[in-house]
Design goal:
The protein contains eleven helices and nine strands. With about 350 residues, the protein is of the alpha+beta class.
Length: about 350
């Protein structure tokens, strides 16, 4: 049988390189691996092979089958490439320069992210990063999010199947699930668990939530969050930093205000409103831009910090929202369409 397998492979190798159409290819494929094909007929002979020889013979057949399939794949790809070349050759002069030639442009989300990081670096913050695949502990438990909180529902969060495994993200609590992070606050927990204060970090990154995509919402978007932990940190420090950030990014006429709110991992908590009528597309006196607050003592206790010694604040906002304000963009979907006409405006 070994000789027969080698003969079929040699015959196929010589024939497949001569094929030029899909019809010829399909006919040749049927002759080898079709119901009545030569290779199929050899496989049917396995029933006549003595039982003790079947494992070795089965291995030979599988190896030959893999080689034959590889030859078929190469032949089909060659024919498909030739078809595409024939279709394009009459319509496109490939010797002409590309209308998009020249250096590329930086995406507007990247521009805003890098500018925000530059502003915060001047205030002493370091950029921190973390995995996009997280566990319930880092994303919810360590942030004092109750097990029955709506954010933990499968209608709001993307969970992985229980059998999923990620070697670079270890579970901290037995039985917890893997998920796509819903905020970059998980980076704050990972940073605090690495060492004692003082800590001053900014964590930009991609996050995921089950949401309907429209002009202002997306299931995949980007956040930027900050954490500052030290002795005697107050709400006044938080407000001063936010004033500095938005004046630097959007202009000195920008103002901010706090409204009382609830977040599970900060107390007190606030919504941050922005007044920036000098910007394009801003028609209202105040618009909501993010959330913030003083880190809850329970969060500090969970990472081994003494809340009697340390205090801190945290805040977060969407990068898409900021970019839409900065550039006067009125539809979040433009950021993800990779339309060259849109991207060229940020050269």
């Amino acid at each position: 049988m070994q000789d027969s397998l080698n003969a079929i492979l040699a015959k196929a190798s010589a024939e497949l390189v001569t094929l030029h159409t899909r019809a010829d290819f399909e006919a040749a494929k049927a002759r080898y691996v079709g119901p009545n094909g030569e290779f199929t007929a050899l496989m049917k002979q396995m029933g006549t092979v003595p039982k003790e020889q079947r494992p070795a013979m089965g291995k030979l057949i599988n190896e030959a089958k893999g080689q034959l399939q590889a030859q078929l794949d190469v032949s089909l790809q060659r024919i498909a490439d030739a078809e595409i070349t024939a279709q394009l050759g009459s319509a496109i002069d490939t010797s002409l320069p590309s209308p998009d030639a020249g250096p590329g442009t930086t995406h507007p989300l990247t521009l805003v992210r890098e500018e925000m990081c530059r502003i915060l670096r001047k205030a002493g913050f370091a950029v921190a990063d973390g995995p996009e695949v997280e566990t319930e502990y880092y994303c919810f438990d360590a942030l004092a999010t109750p097990s029955d909180h709506p954010a933990r529902d499968a209608q709001d969060t993307f969970y992985f199947p229980e059998a999923a495994r990620f070697g670079n993200v270890s579970k901290k609590v037995e039985g917890e699930k893997y998920l796509l992070r819903t905020h970059t606050s998980s980076v704050q927990i990972r940073t605090m668990l690495k060492g004692q204060p003082p800590i001053r970090i900014v964590s930009p990154g991609r996050v995921y939530r089950r949401d309907t995509t429209d002009a202002t919402h997306s299931a995949n978007f980007h956040q930027l969050e900050c954490l500052y932990v030290d002795k005697n940190v107050t709400v006044r420090d938080l407000k001063a930093l936010l004033d500095y950030i938005f004046a630097s990014l959007l202009g000195k006429d920008t103002k901010t205000r706090f409204r009382p709110h609830y977040f599970g991992y900060t107390e007190p908590s606030f919504e941050v409103d922005l007044s920036a009528k000098h910007l394009p597309k801003v028609k209202k006196e105040w618009i909501e831009i993010g959330g913030c607050g003083m880190v809850d003592p329970a969060v500090f206790e969970g990472v081994g910090y003494d809340p009697e010694v340390w205090s801190g604040y945290a805040f977060g906002m969407g990068l898409e929202r900021l970019a839409m304000l900065v550039y006067g963009i009125d539809d979040i979907r433009y950021f993800y369409q990779n339309d060259v006409r849109f991207l060229k405006q940020f050269a």
